[in-house]
Amino acid sequence: MSTTPHENLDSDNTQDEASNDPAQIEADIARHRAELGDTVDELTERLDVKKQAQYKVESVKKQTHDTVESVKTRLQSDDHRDVLSVLAPALGAVAAVVLIIGVARRVRR
Question: I need a labelling partner for 106 at 20 to 30 A (CA). Which of 11, 51, 64, 82 fits?
Fold first, then answer.
């Protein structure tokens, strides 16, 4: 003989009584609203293409700035033997910035 969910009322009875408390229901609703609001905000931010592009541009700018500072520091040192190894990352960073600006302009059209 199989049991249906309605036949086993002893274990569900305590849950029903607790969930019928109006204060508990209101607290659950408030918690679910807050969670839903957070989820919607997160999804909105993730799906905002312009904002994601701005984050990427800022990230590349920071990386470029860091690379330029590193290059400056290495060029100001007394050891000038590896000028090409210093300039290559700097030129790569500049090329990346130019590429991202070109892509951003193409996307705007």
Answer: 64
